[in-house]
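Quick one - first record:
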Amino acid sequence: MREFLAALLFFISIAVPGQPYKRWFTDQYLAGCPGCAVGMVEPAGCNDSIAVYQAFLSGCTNYVKQKRAMVSIDKNDWGTESGTVSIEDNYTETIDSVQLADALQKLVILDTLFSKNFIAVLVGSNACSVDEFLKEKVSVIGSELAVSRTEKVLEFTGMSPRYAYERSSWDEAETRARREAAFYLDAKVSSIGRLGDMVFDERRKQKTRVELRNVFVLKRRIDKTANLFYVTIRLE
């Protein structure tokens, strides 16, 4: 544990608070090392070592989630001529606690990003390395990302508005991308329509139970004009 905290303090000492995004954050697929994951937390004031460790825990959780996670979605909508209202929208992801414990033992922090609004770490195995190209300061500004869906490649983009905590925006965008992937792979839809007093309404239910495997983040972007955050993932 002492060695781990020493490593955290080393990463903190070489980072410059408020620095722009790094390329491994905006274009995670360029990291090249299989299974690299990103973890994020809000800044913790003067106690950055604890924040970095919490980001490490988040990164390990995402690492396991990328490999395999059971997704459950229950969504009920009520549609009328005036529009559609969501009555229920439950989304849960379950990961293997044994795999998480294993990840916490085997993964290391490859690099750290101190942004103005959050702290992020790139985690991976000891065999991975991050070169200067991936550490370069880059812009995250961009528009919605094009996705590719062929027999061999499946990509999905999730979108989120800007929240008070930037991490929440990134998390929601990634979750929405994973939702899209889950619905694409397995979606059971049922609906009941009713016409009464010349008004039509419909109750629509969507249920998904699917295991997502080998789902990796490709890119993160912000549409500054619309204040929207985008995350694109790929199923491999």
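second record:
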Amino acid sequence: MKLAIYNNTSFGAKYVDKTHIQKYNQEDGKYHEAEASFVMLDPYIDEDKATFHDLIRKWTDADLTYMIYDNFLKKCDARYYATTIQNEGFKNLAPEKILSVCEFTENENNGGKIEYIEGNPDIINNPYSEYKAVGTSMIKPLKNKYKKINLVSVPSEKAVNFYKRNGFKQYPDHNLKFYWEA
């Protein structure tokens, strides 16, 4: 039996939890921990659709975001999360403040699968970006929320190393399949 995911009255992205990123401090020239917001977008809410539409126009080098957006519009049976430096006013989530997005399919055992995850390409492709750890800012709240997470990585050494750094283990029979358990 499928349960309705978006059964609450909502007027935009819903705050789920806090998360952390690394933010550059110009005074001391170092990165320091800073708070960000972990939110869920609702495919039935026009403001969230508009935010996602604007996001894919801004993230032109983010191929996975197009796939997430396509599924979001189809209202697939998944949850759509974002991390953002915005800390209020989630009804009008600002695309320029979004750090990462994720499509996550839940299962009945308080776990699920990361279908797609992508960080803002202006951040992850820039070694001098104001922000770092935007992918980890998505992974940590998912690990707090779910007991087991599965995923299939893109064939990239950078992606594989990212998942390993975040505590995921590779399945022995497949070098791109990963899992994490609480």
